[in-house]
Amino acid sequence: MSTDTLKLYHASGSPNSRRVRRYLAERNLSVSMVSVDLSAKEQFSPAYIEINPRSMVPTLVLANGTSIGEVPAIWRYLEESFAELPLLGSTPEEKSLITMWERRVELDGFAAVMEGVRNTVTGLKGRALAGPHAYEQIPALAERSAARVLNFFDDLEAQLANSQFVAGDKFSVADITTLVTLDFAAGGMNLPVPKTHLAVKKWYATVSARPSAKA
Amino acid sequence: MSTDTLKLYHASGSPNSRRVRRYLAERNLSVSMVSVDLSAKEQFSPAYIEINPRSMVPTLVLANGTSIGEVPAIWRYLEESFAELPLLGSTPEEKSLITMWERRVELDGFAAVMEGVRNTVTGLKGRALAGPHAYEQIPALAERSAARVLNFFDDLEAQLANSQFVAGDKFSVADITTLVTLDFAAGGMNLPVPKTHLAVKKWYATVSARPSAKA
């Protein structure tokens, strides 16, 4: 389904943008895509701050001009507006368990990788946290992030040893955030999933074979 | 409405528990309350780990034994199950904007206070992050947290200067997280909202006059 009245501001290299692109691909939804050039710091331009005062991508802009930032908020808009094939769950129990698992993966995994990258990459000096305020890098945090990512791999292995997908027996946004996290850890921190984590490896092969994986 | 088949594991001094207690009070919902004694480290007991492997409060346990952790996931279960007087929004646009604002307050405000407290309090040595894994405190993080909280106050003032409640013209979970954050900052970090922040002060007076504020 094409919904040209919606505009997604995104960046090709942004893992958060990928969480939304992958959701759209799974749902066969297409929206107008607008690239934001992070290397030219376009996210800090007055025009973009008007759209998202936190200077972050992605942002979804509705036909009436309302801006929606934050990945789970964008998912929620799309899910509530185009309800077929839900990726946020159908029953109250499913919806809450998917919220719980997606959030655990984000806080324990995705955020740990982001912290590791933002506290080490030279180009992000003074930008250790995304958003409108400047914060210096903290070397001790970079070290801690790597330890957190390894703990996350162990916790994920324990979950996937008992569960077909991250939040149960159906593919959901929890799997999207997990896939983006693993690719981001391997690419951004040189921390691939260890070979010993057989359940994660098996899940990864299944999930990355889906057509949406390239989004 | 009383829903005795639901059990909420919580701790009286836990700000995250308060986010759920306040939601229940606003909705006039009551569930079976089970106290977890954090001072006796009951959250690390095998019995509690069975309920919540991350050793965190609060957790909602359903009649069928399913455990739901993470505040937004618990809210989602309650909202989807008992739909009158929604605090997560009614239309797709409202739902996504409330998700966005609640999340911004949590990440920029609540999480910054939590980080400040966890990286300074002596009793939390080796417990700088909640959850099953041990992490040492980082002094530089404690300093940065205080700066983040002050920036959060400024951003909140800008929003409330233009908006009756945090996510628009209706009371929502975004207001609950904001109120808990401000009380936590004042009590846990000795960082009350500055007197200059008139819009925040006015909002605080309105919101803390609601009967649910004591929850």
Order of helices and strands of chain A: EHEHEEHHHHH
Count every beta strand of chain A, where a strand is a DSSP E run of 2 or more residues: 4
CATH-derived architecture of the largest domain in chain A: Up-down Bundle
> Largest sheet of chain A, described in full?
4 strands, mixed
How are the strands of the largest sheet of chain A arranged? 2-1-3-4
What is the general shape of chain A? globular
- Low-pLDDT parts of chain A are none
State the oligomer.
Answer: homodimer
Q: Look at the structure and give the CATH class of the largest domain in chain A.
A: Mainly Alpha
Question: How does this structure look, described?
Answer:
- Two copies of one chain form a homodimer.
- Helices cover 49% and strands 10% of the residues of chain A.
- Chain A has 215 residues and is an alpha+beta fold.
- Chain A folds into two domains: 2-81, Glutaredoxin (3-Layer(aba) Sandwich); 92-214, Up-down Bundle (Glutathione S-transferase Yfyf (Class Pi), Chain A, domain 2).
- The longest helix of chain A has 27 residues, at 92-118.
- The A-B interface holds A 53-54, 62, 66, 68-70, 72-74, 76-77, 80-81, 91-93, 95-97, 99-100, 103-104, 108, 129, 131-133, 135-136, 138, 140-141, 144, 147-148, 151, 155 and B 53-54, 62, 66, 68-70, 72-74, 76-77, 80-81, 91-93, 95-97, 99-100, 103-104, 108, 129, 131-133, 135-136, 138, 140-141, 144, 147-148, 151, 155.
